[in-house]
Write a structure and sequence with these properties.
By secondary structure, the protein is of the alpha/beta class. Helices cover about 35% and strands about 25% of the residues. Strand 3 (about 75) and strand 4 (about 80-85) form a beta hairpin. The radius of gyration is 27 Å and the shape is elongated. Bound molecules: coenzyme A.
Length: about 450
């Protein structure tokens, strides 16, 4: 059964994303995969929640097959396909065929899709002596009519073709197209959905600072860390083809983020429900590329109290944290800091200051789904700094089961007699918490 917090997350995210736009670039091999119809079904559900969806189908494999079957010569130059004028017609045919197949599936979900020529393009021309022939780049997205289609409830599909003002078609990279469309539409999110798109610790070297999910998936990566990620993995002997693909996605994700798309997500189409999970839960099941502000530490307000109480509840039940009442937290609300992701409180802690010039770190809790990400240590650093600013001479904690963890921050076991008077009076003789002290 779904966890209560999970249900609250879904409701919060439905509210947050209603009316916003998500651009999804789908690899064409997803269409032939067993989960294709499930993903399309999920899109129909998302559409019902009021999220606007734009699809940009990749057609790389399909185009290769069509060109080969008609004996049209083509080659890849720097990851860009070049072919003859005659080849362009076959590329169009293949690209539209992929879009049509997606449209057929959407129809089965009673979604009205529309395939359109919203893309103005121009040829890449000749660069360093290489003639890029049929390959073009996006010049402009015809935004007005695309927005109209979305406002009217249609689901636009943009094949990887663009036309010049005189009607000449060019083949454009669907990844680049998806980025241009997401930027032009000021999309909330851009998804790259493809088979095997998982970045896991089993196949990649992942920077220590990056957020890992409990099963070892790279859950989130800042654009600032993309270069170091790619550098680390260039020297590692992973499958070069999948590294090339990932490199392209990460570089495009960075471009999108830097041009204003808040978050880009790399999603594995082999995972059932990967799209809704990525939207409606904080950790998702893919890799999120973000520019900044993924999770912030801030002072707690009264409005946060219910969320903080439910965050602490599982630890109270386990006897790790003391039970606290609403009023008690309200009285000391200024002492608390919380860590928030997308409006959800995922960690909290407090620093209480006593007359004896001592501070107490209390009620530190990190949502179990977010442990091992360094959130706890960042909270500790922040509160220790607060204590120093308030000129306390030492900070203590009372703990039953987490002494080893606090010792990592320089705390050491102390005698209960050293507690400030007010706190010693409240010390529970049955609970027998240990006192750990950090002196400055
Ligand atoms: C303890 C806690 C705050 C750590 O938060 P975090 O953000 O996961 O911290 P970290 O990123 O440092 O990762 C946790 C590390 O501490 C270790 N750890 C977790 N709980 C621990 C405990 N009770 N005692 C010793 N070590 C512990 C983990 O094994 C992990 O080690 P690793 O990095 O070598 O794998 C969090 O697990 C929590 O909220 N626990 C329940 C509440 C609690 O115990 N509060 C303190 C009561 S006084």
């Amino acid at each position: 059964m779904m966890h209560t917090e999970g249900i609250r997350d879904v409701i919060r995210y439905i509210r947050k994303f209603k009316g916003s736009t998500i651009v999804i670039r789908i690899d064409d091999d997803v269409i032939d995969s067993p989960l294709f119809s499930t993903h399309i079904h999920d899109l129909a559900l998302l559409h019902e929640t009021g999220i606007r969806i734009v699809l940009v189908p990749g057609a790389h494999n399909h185009i290769s097959r069509v060109l080969d079957s008609y004996d049209i010569s083509w080659k890849m130059e720097d990851a860009i396909r070049t072919t003859t004028d005659e080849g362009t017609n076959f590329i169009m045919m293949a690209a539209f065929d992929v879009s049509n197949r997606i449209m057929a599936r959407l129809s089965a979900e009673r979604l009205t899709a529309v395939i359109g020529n919203w893309v103005r393009a121009r040829g890449r021309g000749v660069i360093d002596g290489v003639d890029y022939g049929s390959a073009g780049i996006v010049d402009k997205i015809q935004l007005d009519s695309l927005v109209c289609a979305l406002e009217d409830g249609f689901l636009p599909i943009l094949p990887c073709i663009g036309w010049t003002s005189t009607g000449r078609p060019y083949n454009i990279s669907s990844t680049e197209l998806a980025v241009s469309v997401a930027v032009a539409l000021k999309a909330e999110k851009l998804f790259f959905l493809g088979l095997g798109n998982t970045i896991s610790i089993n196949d990649y070297t992942i920077p220590k600072t990056a957020d890992l999910s409990p099963e070892g998936r790279l859950a989130a990566l800042s654009v600032d860390d993309i270069d170091s990620f790619l550098e680390k993995n260039r020297t590692k002997t992973t499958d070069p083809h999948s590294l090339d693909k990932m490199t392209d996605l990460l570089v495009q994700a960075r471009t999108a983020c830097l041009k204003g798309v808040p978050r880009v997500h790399i999603l594995d189409a082999d995972i059932d429900g990967v799209i809704p999970t990525e939207i409606f839960s904080d950790l998702g099941s893919g890799t999120m590329i973000y520019r900044n502000n993924y999770g912030t530490f801030r002072n707690m307000t009264r409005d946060d109290i219910p969320a903080v109480l439910s965050l602490m509840n599982p630890f109270v039940e386990k006897g790790v944290l003391l039970p606290r009442k609403n009023e008690e937290i309200e009285r000391r609300v200024k002492d608390f800091v919380v860590f928030e992701i997308d409006g959800g409180i995922r960690a909290c802690a407090a620093l209480h200051i006593y007359q004896e010039n001592m501070g107490e770190i209390a009620a530190i809790a990190v949502d179990e789904a977010y442990t091992h990400m360094g959130i706890g240590p960042r909270l500790m650093k922040l509160l220790i700094q607060r204590g120093k600013t308030a000129k306390v001479s030492s900070i203590f904690v009372l703990t039953t089961q987490s002494a080893d963890w606090f010792e990592k921050f320089g705390f050491s076991v102390a005698n209960i007699d050293q507690l400030p008077k007010e706190r010693r009076e409240k010390w529970d003789t049955k609970r027998k918490s240990r006192m750990l002290l950090l002196s400055f």
